[in-house]
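I'll show a sample.
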Amino acid sequence: MKNIYTEERKVKIQKKIAETPKSLLRDSLTDYTEGYFHITLNVHDGLPILGVVEGNSKAKRGEKDAPHVRYTKLGQAVKEVWMNSFHFHSGIEIVEFEAMPEHIHCLIYLKPENKEHLGKIVNGIMIGCTHAYWDELGIEWKSEKLNKDAAAFRKKYDKDHTRSYRGPALFVHGYNDVEAVTAEEVATKIEYIRANPERRLIKGENRAIFTITRRKCSRNWNLDAVKRGLTRDRWFKAHAADFERAFVNLLPRLSTVSVDGTSRLCIDYLGNRDILNNQQKVSLVCHKADAALFEKQVEAVMNAARNGAVIVSAFISAKERAIRDRLISEQLPVIELVDNGFNERYKPYGKSFYACAEGWMMQMSCWNYVYSKQTTVSREMCMAMNELARIISGVNDDWWKKCAML
C-alpha cells in the first residue's frame, strides 16, 4: 500500500495541529464513534443571528415567562438541521439542544451500532446549517450551473461547513467536544444546556458581579509565598530536588504582570467585591491527618460562617467540596480559589454561578488560563492555592481546632 504520509504531508499535519486551539483538538485516546459528547459551535465573528434571549430570570421552567431563546428564522432552521440529523446518520441521537444568539450547544449520543466518526457527523451537520444560512442570504446552491472545470474546482476546494467560494460559512472552523462518561456527567451536561438562557439573563442583570478584574497585585502574594506553600508539604520540605522541580513547574502557570519593569505575581477575580473587605476571614484546608476530626472541623467552619466569617478555600478535596455545598445552601459568604485562569468568556459553573449572582461568593485565580480536557490539578498547585487561602484569611489551617476545644 502506498504510504500517504509523505514528509511534506507530515509537516502540514504538524503545522495544522500547532495552529489549532487546544479546545478544538481531538483527544487521541477517545473513541469518537460511541458515547455521549457535548458539542459547542460558535457563529463566525460572534454574530448574534440565531436568536434573542428573553424571559424573567426568576421565573421557573415551564412558566410562561421562563428564560428562553426566541429563535430567528435562521436559528429555527439550524435547530431543525440538528434535530433531523438522524435521517442522515442513523447511529446517533440528539439528546439535548439549544441555540444561543451566537453559538449552539448540543449533547449528541453515538449509539453502539454507529460506525461514523464524530467529526464526520458534525461536519455534515455544519454543512446543512451553512446551506440554511445561504437560503437566508439568497445564495443559490441547490441548482448551480457550473461548467465541468468549475465544478471540479469547487469539489476540490470548497468545504461548505467552514469555507466556500460560493458564500460564507455559518460557523467558525472546528468545534469543541467534551465527552460525558458517567450518568452523572450526562445529567450535568443536559442541565448545563437547558440552563443557558437563564444564566445569560442573570449575567446580564449582574454585569458588575460577573466582570473580571484582572492583574491585581498584593505585596503578600509573591514567589516566597509560593515556596512557603510548597515547604508545608513534608515531602517537598525533605527533598530539595523534588521541591525545586515542583517550583519550576509552577512558574509558567502563575499569572504575572510587569510593574516598573519587574515581574510580579497577580490575581484575577470576580463576584461580590464586598466579601473581600470583610475583616473576619478563615481558611479551609482539610488534611488527611485530621480525617478523624472532620465532623468537628465542619461544625467549626459552619459556626464561623454563620457568625459572619468569610470562608476562603480552593475546595480541592471531596470533603472541602462537601463543606462548600453546605455553605452555598445556607447562603454563607465564600471566597473560592479556582484551579485555572479566567478566559475571556469565563463565567462560574454550577452552584458557584448562582452563589456569585446572589452575592455570596467571590472567585479568585492566581493562574494563567490553560485549556485542558483533563480536570486533574497538580499537587504543587494545591499547595500554592492553600497558601494563598492562608494569606487572604490571615489565619493558619488549624484555627478550627481551638474552636473545637472550647
User: Anything to note?
Assistant: The longest helix spans residues 118-137. The longest strand covers residues 35-42. Residues 50 and 73 are 8 Å apart (CA to CA). The chain has a mean pLDDT of 88.
